Amino acid sequence: MGKRVVEIGIAGKLTSDELEELLLEFEKIIRRDIEQKLRRRLDELEVIVEGEIEEDGKLNVRVDVRATGRVIAPLSYEEVLAEAIEKAARWLEAELRSRVARGEGKEATGGSR
Q1: According to the model, what pLDDT value does residue 58 have?
Q2: Which pLDDT score is estimated for 74?
Q3: How far apart are the C-alpha atoms of 60 and 80, rounded to whole Å?
Q4: DSSP per residue over 93-105, as a string?
Q5: Does domain 2-66+80-101 have CATH number 1.10.3720.10?
Q6: Which residue ranges make up each domain of the chain?
């Protein structure tokens, strides 16, 4: 699939440990979603997630997902991977907004791409 950058308009005041914890869960969501949808078709799955908080407070997450497997029925691996990344991005944005609401960060703005 190649690399994709997900931009979240908020990051709040995250420590490096908190960011790492969020990115690990982000990766788990992607893996779980892909494995559930592809099941036995999936031979190999590689997910690499990296993130950094920009000076303006935006969180950029770089995602590289590569999946190989058997084609048993009409299925677009690209669509499955894109849907999994989008699901993880929605979770991450909701989690960051929740942290802001609890007073653990600054005001929420922006969205995901």
Answers
A1: 82
A2: 61
A3: 22
A4: HHHHHHHHHTTSS
A5: no
A6: 2-66+80-101
